[in-house]
Amino acid sequence: MNRPLLGALVGVVLLSSSCGVPVDRVPPSAPAAAERTPESSAVTPPPAQPSPLRTPTATPSPSQSPKPPPSLIGDNLNAWAFAPLDAPERLVVEGSVPSQRAWSTSKLLVVAAFLDEACDGDPRNASAAQQREMSRSLSESDMTSVVALANAIPSGKQAGMTKVLRSIGDDETTVPSRLEGTMTWRVERQVEFLVALHEGRVVSPESSQYILDHMQPITSQSWGLGAAGSSAYKGGWLRANTETRQMGIVDGYAVALITSGVGPAEVQSDGDSAHVDQMNKLATQLRARLSHEAAASEVHAA
Asked: Selecting from 3.40.710.10, 3.40.366.10, 3.40.50.300, 3.30.720.10, what CATH number does the domain 78-301 have?
C-alpha cells in the first residue's frame, strides 16, 4: 500500500475512536459563557431612573378628647353653685365644705330688711346718712355702717332678715338673734337670692336694683369674682382657718362660691383675713365652666 493511502486510513481510525469517549471524560474545553470575564460578557443595565418626587404625608396624630370643663364634684374643701338668670331652674351645685357661714354676705340681708321696714321699699326714703351707710355696707363691708342700719329696722334685724328670706321662698336659712354673720347660708340659697334680686323680688324692684347697683366692692376687695368680671358681687371672710366666700352675677349667671380655708390668707382692710389666691382660682375656673355651660346650651337649643 502506498504511503498516502496509509495515512488516510490512520486518520479515519483516530477520528472514530475519539467519537466514542464518554462525555464525562471529555477534556475541559474553553470556559462557559457564565464563567467568562464580566467585562467581556455582562450586559450593562440601563441607568436608574429617579423616583418621582412625592409630597410627604403628615401622619395624623391620635385624636385627643376635649378637655373636660372645671368641676368641683367630689371636692370637700370648696363648693359653688350657679344658675342662668333666664333659667334659674337649671341650678347646679358642686363640692362641699364643712361649714357655710355667711359672714359679711349677710350684710345684703341687713340692707334689704332696712329698705323693707325703714324705707317702705323705696331707697329714696332713706336719709343722706342712711344712703351712705347702705353704700358702705355693700361696697366696703363696713361693720359700723351695717350695725347702724340693723338698729334702725323696726322689727329688729332677726325678724326683718327672716321676713326677706321667706318672701323669696327660702324656708331653710335661719337667722340667729345675734351675730348674723355666723348663720348658715348655703351657696344654692345665695344663688336663689341673687335670682330674686335680678327679678326685682327682694322687697321691691327699686330695692332690688339699688342693692345690685351698690354691690361693687372697693379695689382692695375686688379679688375673686371681681377679677373674673362679675358685674355685682359681695364677699364674706373672717380668719385664716374659716370660710371665705362670694356671691354675685357673672356672664348672665347667678353664682356663689366658697372655700374652707384653702391656701394662704391675706389681711383685709377690716383687719380680718381672706383666702384671696384660692378665691381667684375658683372664680377663674367657674367662669370657664360657665362658658362651657353657655356653649352647651346654645348647641342644645339649636
From this structure: 3.40.710.10
Element (H, E) at 94: strand 92-95
Residue with cell 331707697: 123
Tens of pLDDT, residues 106-140? 999 999 999 999 999 999 999 999 999 999 999 99
Q: Sort strands 243-250 and 253-260 into parallel, antiparallel or unpaired.
A: antiparallel
Measured in degrees and rounded to the nearest 5, phi and psi for residue 278 equal -65, -35
Ramachandran category for residue 112: left, alpha or beta (phi over 0 → left; psi -120 to 50 → alpha): alpha
- Whole-structure pTM value: 0.78
Is 206 within 8 Å of 220 (Cβ atoms)?
no
Long-range contacts of 155-163 (CB under 8 A, 24+ apart): 155/117, 157/110, 157/113, 160/113, 160/114, 160/116, 160/117, 161/106, 161/109, 161/110, 161/112, 161/113, 163/113, 163/116
Sort strands 243-250 and 232-236 into parallel, antiparallel or unpaired: antiparallel
Over the stretch 183-233, which tens digit does the pLDDT of each residue have?
Answer: 999 999 999 999 999 999 999 999 999 999 999 999 999 999 999 999 999
